[in-house]
Design a protein that fits this description.
This protein has 18 helices and 21 strands. It has helices spanning 5-18, 42-46, 51-56, 92-103, 131-136, 191-201, 222-226, 242-247, 249-258, 278-281, 283-292, 313-316, 361-371, 373-381, 446-463, 509-527, 533-536, 541-547; strands at residues 58-59, 105-111, 116-121, 126-130, 161-168, 173-180, 183-190, 203-204, 238-241, 264-268, 307-310, 344-351, 354-360, 384-390, 412-418, 421-423, 429-432, 469-474, 479-483, 487-489, 501-507. The protein is elongated and about 80 Å long. 37% of the residues are buried.
C-alpha cells in the first residue's frame, strides 16, 4: 500500500508544528484534500443527524465556522455542514394518547389449567406467558433494599396456577389471583410493564413472528451510539451550566446524551477553588461530577481522585505529560490501561485561561473507512501495544520527580494490547485508542509489519489534519468534558506569563450507563407516577428502554 504525496505533506506540516513553541498559537497549515476512490457511502447509512437534539444544546456564541474541503460524505457530518433529518412535531396530548392505547390490556384468559395466561393488548399484539414467570416477577417479592425477600420462593413457583384474571382500571392494570394448594393471593400488574416484557417472555399469538431475546447487559445509550454523527473543525462546542447540571436531573440526562454524541462539552460556572494546593485544587470539579454522575475513578497510587498539572518547573519533572512546554500529538487518555477505564474525561481549568483543541475519532475512523479501506482493515484488526511503568507518585500518593533518585516511587506496570480502532458487533466504531507517546514495543508479525505501519502513519497524519481539529477558548473556572472513547485532545496553548493549574479526572463507562439508567427511570416515573420504582427497577436494559421511551 502506497502513502500518497499529499499525506506525506501533512506529516511534514505536523512535524514542523510539533517543533514550534507551544505557547504560541500555531497557524493552521493549508488544507490538503486526500483523494481516494470511494468505497460507497457506508457512513451516510450508518449515521444520521438529529435536528431536535442539536437545537436542544446551547453553543458557544464565540465559536467560529471554518470553510472545509473535507471529503467525508455530508450525511456523516455534525452541525451546519451536515444533512439534517426532518422532524415532525406532534402535540404532547396526541403522544400521550398513543402511549395509553398501545399498551392497554383489552383481554386476558388463563389457559392450560391456569399454568399460562393469554394477554391481548390494544395495539393488536397477543402473547401467552407462563404463570410461574408472572408470579416470580411480582414486585411483592422484593423488599425495601430491592433484593428478593426469600431465596426459597423459587422452589415453589411450579405449584402456582391462575384461578382468575381480570382487566382492571380501563386496561391500565391486570388483576390476577394465584392459587397453590389451599392458599390463594391476589396481585396487580401494570399493563405498560406487561406490554414491554411480553415480546421477550411471551409466545406471540398475533402473527408468525419470533419473540425478542435479551442478549447481554445492553445499554440505554445504545441507540444514541448507533445514531452518532461525526464532526469536523467547524463544530459548535455544546455548553452546559454547572449550577443547572447540579440541580436538574433532566439537564443531567441531556448532558450524558451529549457525551455520547458529539462527545464534547464545555461546562461554565464551575468556579475556582479556595486553594490551589493539590488536595483542594480539583474539589470544584470533583464535587460537580459527583452530583451529576458519581465518584471519579480512583488512581492506583495517587492520594486524590484527580490529577493536577501546573505550568511550573516542578510539575514538568513528573514527566512529558506534565510538562506544558512539551507539545503533544492528538491522543486519547488511558491508552495504557487495559479496557480504557476512563470513558468520560473531565479537564478543569482551576487557574488561567488558555486555548485548546480536540478532534473527533469517529470522523477520523469513518474517513479512513471511506478513503483508505485497506488501512481501515488493518487498524481495526491488527493488535498494537500501549504500555508504560508509572513512577509519577510517591508511596504517600504525592507527585514526585521522575528524575529524583532520592525519593522512592510507588511503581506499577500498565499494558494494553488492542486495535487502534475498535468496532462493535454491528461494525460501528466503539472506541479509538491513540497515544503515540505511550505506544510500546509492538510484536507485529513480520508479514503485516510494513503495511500496518504505513496504515498507522496515514492514521497519525489524519489525527493532526486541521480539517478535523476544533480549536476553542478555555476560560478559567470552566471544565472541558470529552468522551475518551471517541474524542482526541492535544496540548493547550498557554499565553506567555500566564499561570496555569489544570485538574483532570475520569469516570468509567459502567458508572455512566447506570447513572443514565437511574435518571431515565426518574423521568419515566415523573411522566407516569404509577410506573414507579416497583416496575422500573430489577429489569433488563432492553425492557427498560421500552418503558423509558414513548414507543411502549
Amino acid at each position: 500500500m502506497m502513502i500518497r504525496e499529499e499525506t506525506r505533506a501533512l506529516l511534514g506540516q505536523w512535524r514542523a508544528r510539533m517543533g514550534a513553541c507551544p505557547a504560541a498559537h500555531l497557524p493552521i497549515a493549508p488544507t490538503v484534500a486526500v483523494v481516494a476512490p470511494s468505497q460507497g457511502n457506508q457512513a451516510n447509512r450508518r449515521f444520521a443527524t438529529s435536528a431536535s437534539k442539536q437545537q436542544q444544546r446551547s453553543v458557544l456564541s464565540t465559536a467560529t465556522t471554518a470553510t472545509s474541503t473535507n471529503k467525508i460524505p455530508p450525511g456523516l457530518l455534525f452541525g451546519a455542514g451536515g444533512a439534517v433529518a426532518p422532524t415532525v412535531a406532534r402535540p404532547a396530548l396526541e403522544q400521550n394518547e398513543t402511549m395509553v392505547v398501545k399498551h392497554q390490556l383489552v383481554a386476558c384468559e388463563p389457559i392450560n389449567s391456569g399454568k399460562q395466561l393469554v394477554l391481548k393488548f390494544a395495539d393488536g399484539t397477543k402473547y401467552q406467558v407462563h404463570t410461574s414467570w408472572l408470579k416470580d416477577s411480582s414486585p411483592k417479592n422484593r423488599a425495601a433494599d430491592f433484593y428478593r425477600t426469600s431465596a426459597a420462593d423459587v422452589w415453589k413457583l411450579r405449584n402456582f396456577s391462575i384461578v382468575s384474571a381480570t382487566v382492571a382500571e380501563e386496561g391500565q392494570k391486570l388483576q390476577v389471583t394465584f392459587e397453590t394448594g389451599s392458599d390463594s393471593a391476589t396481585d396487580f400488574f401494570e399493563a405498560q410493564w406487561l406490554h414491554a416484557f411480553a415480546p421477550f417472555v411471551g409466545k406471540p399469538l398475533h402473527a408468525d413472528v419470533v419473540g425478542e431475546v435479551v442478549r447481554g447487559t445492553g445499554s440505554l445509550l445504545r441507540n444514541l451510539h448507533r445514531n452518532r454523527t461525526a464532526w469536523m473543525s467547524d463544530i459548535e462546542m455544546p455548553v452546559f451550566d454547572a449550577a443547572t447540571l447540579a440541580a436538574s436531573e433532566d439537564a443531567q440526562v441531556d448532558f450524558l446524551e451529549n457525551m455520547v454524541d458529539p462527545g464534547i462539552a464545555l461546562v461554565t460556572g464551575v468556579g475556582t477553588p479556595e486553594h490551589l494546593e493539590r488536595e483542594f485544587a480539583g474539589k470544584p470539579m470533583e464535587d460537580l461530577v459527583f452530583k451529576i454522575i458519581g465518584k471519579l475513578n480512583q488512581h492506583p497510587v495517587r492520594s486524590t481522585t484527580y490529577g493536577v498539572m501546573r505550568k511550573t518547573a516542578d510539575s514538568a519533572k513528573q514527566g512529558a505529560d506534565y510538562d506544558m512546554s512539551n507539545p503533544l500529538s492528538m491522543h486519547t487518555d488511558h491508552s495504557v490501561y487495559q479496557g480504557t477505564p476512563g470513558y468520560l474525561q473531565f479537564l478543569y481549568q482551576a487557574e488561567g485561561s488558555v486555548r485548546s483543541k480536540v478532534c473527533d475519532g469517529l470522523a477520523l475512523a469513518e474517513y479512513v473507512r471511506e478513503h483508505h479501506p485497506e488501512a481501515f482493515r488493518l487498524l481495526t484488526t491488527v493488535q498494537m501495544t500501549h504500555s508504560s511503568r508509572n513512577t509519577l507518585y510517591s508511596r504517600e500518593g504525592a507527585p514526585r520527580s521522575v528524575y529524583d533518585k532520592t525519593s522512592a516511587p510507588a511503581p506499577f506496570e500498565l499494558v494494553h494490547t488492542h486495535p487502534i480502532i475498535q468496532l462493535d458487533e454491528e461494525g460501528l466504531v466503539e472506541k479509538v485508542v491513540q497515544s503515540e507517546t505511550k505506544r510500546g514495543v509492538c510484536a507485529l508479525s513480520y508479514d503485516v509489519y510494513n503495511e500496518f505501519m504505513e496504515a498507522y502513519e496515514v492514521w497519525t497524519q489524519l489525527c493532526e489534519d486541521p480539517r478535523f481539529i476544533k480549536h476553542f477558548d478555555w476560560p478559567e473556572g470552566t471544565m472541558v468534558v470529552t468522551n475518551n472513547y471517541r474524542t482526541l485532545h492535544g496540548r493547550a496553548s498557554v499565553p506567555p506569563g500566564m499561570a496555569r493549574t489544570m485538574c483532570f479526572g475520569y469516570v468509567n463507562k459502567i458508572l455512566v450507563e447506570n447513572r443514565y439508567r437511574l435518571l431515565k427511570q426518574g423521568q419515566a416515573e415523573r411522566r407516569n407516577p404509577d410506573m414507579d420504582h416497583r416496575w422500573l427497577t430489577r429489569i433488563p436494559n432492553q425492557v427498560l428502554e421500552k418503558l423509558t421511551t414513548d414507543t411502549n
